[in-house]
């Protein structure tokens, strides 16, 4: 009769074992997840920004102020990073993305005080970008 309880004991031991942390998403995983989406990101319970993922690894970013920046992303596979370059800044902004139960989690690379963002929501609709400012 002891053998009948072995599967239950095995299941309980697996549940008690800590889950192994999965590594950063590959470029293919990231592209598959983000293609055609608009993702809203948060930080510490506050809205942070929104990014629209366009064809050919192009992106559009905004800090939710209606001012949008065009850019593109590429992968740095040796570091497990996805790097973004925007029209107003030629310096790559590199992140590691992780697939979590609630969506993406992003860790900024290259600083001692790493910025951590999480996916707050996603949408299929384009993001709001205001037109250029016209001065007098």
Key terms:
Lipocalin, 8 strands, 14% helix, 2 helices, single chain, 8-stranded antiparallel beta barrel, disordered N terminus, globular, 136 residues, mainly beta
Description of the structure:
The structure is a single chain. The protein is mostly beta strands. The chain is 14% helix and 44% strand. It is globular and about 40 Å long. It has an 8-stranded antiparallel barrel with strand order 1-2-3-4-5-6-7-8. 14% of the residues are buried.
SSE topology:
Layout: H1 6-16, H2 27-34, E1 38-43, E2 46-53, E3 58-62, E4 68-76, E5 81-86, E6 89-100, E7 103-108, E8 116-123
Antiparallel strand pairs: 1-2, 1-8, 2-3, 3-4, 4-5, 5-6, 6-7, 7-8
Classify the secondary structure makeup into a structural class. Answer: mainly beta
- Ranges where pLDDT stays below 50 over 5 or more residues in a row are 1-20
The domain tally reads: 1
Strand line-up in the sheet with most strands: 1-2-3-4-5-6-7-8
Biggest pleated sheet:
8 strands, antiparallel, barrel
CATH topology: Lipocalin
What's the N-to-C terminus distance? 88 Å
Total helices: the number is 2
Q: What would you call the shape?
A: globular
Strand content: 35-45%
Architecture per CATH nomenclature, i.e. the level-2 architecture: Beta Barrel
């Amino acid at each position: 009769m002891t053998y009948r309880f072995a599967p239950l004991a095995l299941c309980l031991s697996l549940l008690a074992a800590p889950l192994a942390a999965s590594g950063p998403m590959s470029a293919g995983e990231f592209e598959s997840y983000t293609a055609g989406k608009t993702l809203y990101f948060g930080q510490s319970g506050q809205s942070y920004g929104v990014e629209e993922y366009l064809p050919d690894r192009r992106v559009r970013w905004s800090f939710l102020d209606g001012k949008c920046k065009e850019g593109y992303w590429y992968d740095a596979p040796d570091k497990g990073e996805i790097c973004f370059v925007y029209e107003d800044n030629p310096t790559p902004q590199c992140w590691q993305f992780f697939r979590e139960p609630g969506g993406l989690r992003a860790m900024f690379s290259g600083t001692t005080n790493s910025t951590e963002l999480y996916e707050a929501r996603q949408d299929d609709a384009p993001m709001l970008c205001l037109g250029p400012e016209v001065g007098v």
